[in-house]
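Backbones bend. To wit:
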Amino acid sequence: MQNKTFVAVAVGLGLISLSACGSGDGKSSADSKTVTLVSHNSWAISKKVQRDFEKRSGYKLRVLKDGDAGQAVNKAILTKGNPQGDVFFGVDNSLLSRALDNGLFQPYTAKGLDKVGASYQLDKDEHRVTPVDHGDICVNYDKAWFSEHKLTPPRTFADLVKPAYKNLLVTENAATSSPGLGFLLGSAAAYGDDGWQDYWKKLKANGVKVVDGWEQAYTQEFSGSTGGKEAGGDRPLVVSYASSPPAEVLYAKKRPSTAPTGVATATCFRQIEFAGLLGNAKNPEGAKAFLDFLISKEFQEDMPVNMYVYPVVQGAEVPAEFTEYGPAAENPETMAPEKIAANRDQWVKSWTSLVLK
């Protein structure tokens, strides 16, 4: 989930190119021994774990990384009559209704679904998608910057509009980025249908900076990340993930004794990612085998250090660094999928007019 700059553009606008991109090997999904996964650019799996799947299932896994997740979802919808693959991974709860309403997936009840927490099963009556992971979109802060300036880091949404934090926050565009959209939904959950716009007026007046996506915000603008330091980033607050601090530890050239970044725990919005069997898939049996694999304990425990997300399967363990540096939020903001479906597009339009113009 770390490198996700989802493009949440309405399918009806027709702005997504239909050209395929990614790491495909040119083979057709018609090959009954090959199962093709379509996903966003952040898909990652350990080589050993992929080999284990291929050996046990008898299918060769082909991966088509198709851009940012929102773009990949929209392209999958536009090509659903002749899909590029057999299974899709990477649609999250903020865009789930778009995929389901457009008939992107066909039902399948994955083996082992009974071990997936009930709170993650947002389509439990029809099983068109299988929950795979969850994470929390939260404001991260640069510990060193706040220590040097003798300023207490913000903890809540309300803190972010205080004068002490003027011109410190960078966030992603809610119309072009999943973290940006999640932060908007989190503020709507916190302030209600009638209060979130006033909150964003205050945030804009307090100097929030908006960029297109997570990569730019976190690795260029944010002063606390490794990339941000190298790029001269000057914003000590950024909308990212609760799992970003352990990523800073695990990817450091010299592992620090503590994470250089922290999380404003009362700004988090819970994100759940799903996978599904594509309608008209050429290898539905291979897709079913892969969906079963995605909620196996082996994959669920391999996933955190590759995609920096948390398992949804009960009993799956996470690395110690996650527990120490980036535990999942205890009380994240959430929103019912039906409410997201009913309001998302209008909220994004209102947000764009309010914040970007």
User: Anything to note?
Assistant: The first strand starts at residue 34 and ends at 39. The chain has a mean pLDDT of 89. The longest helix spans residues 337-356.
